[in-house]
Amino acid sequence: MTKNLFFSCVDSRLEDNGSMYGRFHLGTFIRGQSLTFGNSLRRVLLSESPGVIITDIRIDGADHEFATLPGIQETVLDIILNLKKLVFTPVGVNFLELQNFKTTIFLQSQGPCLVCAKDLKLPPTLKCINPNSLIATLTTGAKLSISVELNFINPLDLPFKNQILFGQNRIKNFSLDLIPMPVHKVNYIIKELDSKNGSEYLVFEIWTDGSITPQDILQFALKNLTQLFFQFAQISK
After folding, report:
1. How far apart are CA 62 and CA 166, in angstroms?
2. Which of 17, 27, 10 is nearest to 129 (CA)?
3. How far is CA 192 from the centre of its chain?
4. Pairing of strands 134-138, 163-166
5. Among the listed residues 12, 184, 210, 17, the one whose alpha carbon sits nearest the alpha carbon of residue 95
6. Are both 62 and 35 inside the same structural domain?
7. pLDDT value, residue 195
8. Could you tell me if residue 1 is inside a domain?
9. Could you give the dihedral angle defined by the CA atoms of residues 42, 46, 50 and 54, in that order, rounded to the nearest 10 degrees?
10. Which residues span the domain enclosing 213?
11. Which 3 state secondary structure label does DSSP give 173?
12. What are residue 176's phi and psi, to 5 degrees?
């Protein structure tokens, strides 16, 4: 068993665009262990992190994704892509303890105006991280009515069927990827701790979209890795 273990957050900040940054020191590792540990943790953070994402969209008057709506500058596809840029996070609950979280939000606007994320009617249990993000540009007399369904998706759960609604027609396997990606970037550096005994430690950096803190998502990834290896350890007995 490795002795003198340490885990510390040495830097944490909120970026101008609403994203979050955290830097951590993890150790002690014997030479070679830190590379194995860092690679595994980075893969889990980038591919297995859960999140609240848009799963269904209904836009009144839109028959397909390449349609245009009267008086609206953006195409339906542009509106969908703008909606997909929005970042949501629950309020008053532990992000990583959500179970079966599902809610529907609405938007109704009439031009002339710029429709932004802050115009969405959100329940008190939900917050948009980027409220000033543009959704559509409406000219005089133009109307836009949208309903959006959000779900908490954990990639480790059963496969989730990607389905997006347009009017009354359901379009399956739409080209947009609906896998949550709250972690934007992960970087780590291996540093020497004691050259005499060959010990080293990791400097770990995480950037998230602001829906979850780097500290929380790092703890989530460590827990997932522990459970995975423990399962195989049990089978091997």
Report:
1. 6
2. 17
3. 33
4. unpaired
5. 210
6. no
7. 80
8. no
9. 170
10. 6-48+182-236
11. coil
12. -70, 140
CATH code for the domain in which residue 118 is found: 2.170.120.12
Domain count, the chain: 2
Side chain identity at residue 43, one-letter code: R
102 and 215 both lie in a single domain: no
Three-state SS at 223: helix
Domain identity same for 19 and 61: no
Residue 136 C-alpha from the chain's centroid: 23
79-121 tens-digit pLDDT: 999 999 999 998 877 777 777 788 899 999 998 999 999 999 9
State whether residue 41 is helix, strand or coil: helix
- What's the chain's length in residues? 237
pTM recorded for the entire structure: 0.85
Residue-wise pLDDT for 159-218, tens only, equals 554 444 444 444 433 345 668 899 999 999 999 988 888 899 999 999 999 999 999 999
Query: At which residue do the structure tokens 């010990």 appear?
Result: 199
31-35, 79-83, 141-145, 176-180: least confident range: 176-180
Q: List, edge to edge, every strand of the sheet that includes 102-110.
A: 51-59, 143-153, 102-110
Question: Averaged over 62-73, what is the pLDDT?
Answer: 88
Classify residue 228 by burial, with Cβ atoms within 10 Å: 0-12, 13-18, 19+. middle
Q: What is the percentage of the chain residues whose pLDDT exceeds 90?
A: 52
**202 class by beta-carbon count within 10 Å (0-12 exposed, 13-18 middle, 19+ buried):** buried
Same domain flag for 102 and 209: no
177 lies in some domain = no
